Amino acid sequence: MNLSHIFSRAGVGIEAPQVTIETHISNGLPALSIVGLPEAAVRESKDRVRSALINSNFEFPTRRITINLAPADLPKDGCRFDLPIALGILAASGQLPVQHLANYEFIGELALSGELRPIHGILPAALAAKRSQRILVLPEQNAPEASLVDAEQLIAQQLLDVVAHLVGQKRLDLNHPIQSEQSTEKTPDLIDVKGQYAAKRALEIAAAGKHNLLFIGPPGTGKTMLASRLSGLMPELSDEEAVDCAAIASVSGRRRLTKQWKVRPFRVPHHTASAVALIGGGSNPRPGEVSLAHNGVLFLDELPEFDRKVLEVLREPLESGSVTISRAARQAEYPARFQLIAAMNPCPCGHFGNARGQCRCSPDQIRRYLLKLSGPFLDRIDLHIDVPLMTRKEFTAPVDSASESTAEVRSRVEQAHAVQYQRQYKLNGDLQASELDQQLAIEPAAREFVLQVMEKLGLSARAYHRILRVSRTIADLEGCEQVDRQHVSEAISYRKFERMMQQI
Q1: How far apart are the C-alpha atoms of 164 and 53, rounded to whole Å?
Q2: CA-to-CA distance for 88 and 101, rounded, in angstroms?
Q3: Which terminus of the chain is more exposed, N or C, with fewer CB under 10 A?
Q4: CA 220 to CA 350: how far, in whole Å?
């Protein structure tokens, strides 16, 4: 038989569409051509495959070989097709029986010696193979990552090992699924933060309702220290969420393969990061920081130091929870349901509003500094919290009984999450405006109070809905079914930025 079909997987975003490697050997001058929109790395595979076959003591056919990567209109890149191309040539030339090949999917790069090398993006391919009910054969170095998927997989070190398995001489080893373990990694504890009880309360509310948070305060007040505690207050990732995060890391070339793979991502890009670094991009689109922070936290320190155009690109993913990267040849969509936490100084010198009167900035300098952040961007941040300088007494005092550990606060956060999922199947921060009206259960007097404050501070409709979401979360933390004026008043008090703009 001069024709063979081998199944493999391409990589498009975090999806892995099926690719069928069709190999045909015919009479004619010796040549090997690959068609089906192959990019440079795929076209170069013919040289790697030829050397790998010869060095593995197989015969390389001295005839005309045509390899089609179907579907032909799907761009193919990377070295992932080396192994299936080699097996296709062996099957089409009669050196490998074609029986049962339809039950397998093959993926991996070949060295010139026939050794299998790892590839990026193995996890989406493993998930897709599981859905197709086929057995995935993959390089041994990809095994820990692929083991996150509970499916039958075979691992190999050499091309010879794969062929020996297919002809029934020696079976390949099974890849055993990873066992979920409780995280034992020591995370920063909230009890280490002295004072700043209002900021700690805001952290708890943000974690309980998945609200975006902005810390505003002078240098050295603990804003970064507080922000680093947020992910520890949130419950561990579910199996499905953890696999999503691992798939994004896999596509980007990073690996989340420690025993603590259910820990939520915490990404901290530098303020010189570009829009592409945050959103993702490139000729072959790769995920950016917002996608790497999916189901976790994105922390932007020194917020006004980011380029304004860079911050503006965050507006759409903050609303939609996804990013679509379009290029001339392809398009990729990545999930980006992250929780934003940011920190900033109130003015260029950092001491505006300081009771000690240390600010050296003029009102115009302060206004220009604050206006680096646009109104539409700030509207998407639910909580604006003042983090003042600590007094000498607070700074030197030992940890008191009023301080709570991360574990104590996380227990209340988990209870609030359970209430929200039972009521509306999602967290309050993810509620749409129409859903919010159905789930709010607010007292008429409390709603009227919010409308009055909205007119006085000149808030937008988006800010109005975000105040209501925060109010709902505060009520959930207190175990109240109805939102009253006290809950609304506390939510309004967390609008520091609007009050700062009124002062100048």
Answers
A1: 14
A2: 10
A3: N
A4: 10
DSSP classification of residue 329: S
Q: Give the SS3 label for residue 166.
A: helix
- Write out pLDDT tens, residues 19-29: 999 999 999 89
- Give me the mean pLDDT over the 444-457 stretch: 87
- Prediction pTM value: 0.86
pLDDT, position 443: 87
What is the per-residue DSSP string for 287-308? E-HHHHTTTSEEEESSGGGS-H
User: Taking all residues of the chain, what is their mean pLDDT, rounded to a whole number?
Assistant: 88
Cis, peptide link before residue 71, omega less than 30° from 0: yes
Place of tokens 């398995």: 165
Q: Which helix (H) or strand (E) holds 314?
A: none
Mean pLDDT within 470-482: 93
As given in the structure block, the two tokens for residue 155 are 């691992």
pLDDT digit string, tens, across residues 160-216? 999 999 999 999 999 987 665 555 556 788 888 887 888 999 999 999 999 999 999
Angle between helices 82-92 and 45-55 (to 10 degrees): 60
Instruction: Give the H or E element holding residue 69.
Output: strand 64-70
Please state at what angle helix 197-209 crosses helix 406-424, rounded to 10 degrees: 40
Q: Quick one: which of 342, 337, 298, 299 has its CA closest to 316?
A: 337
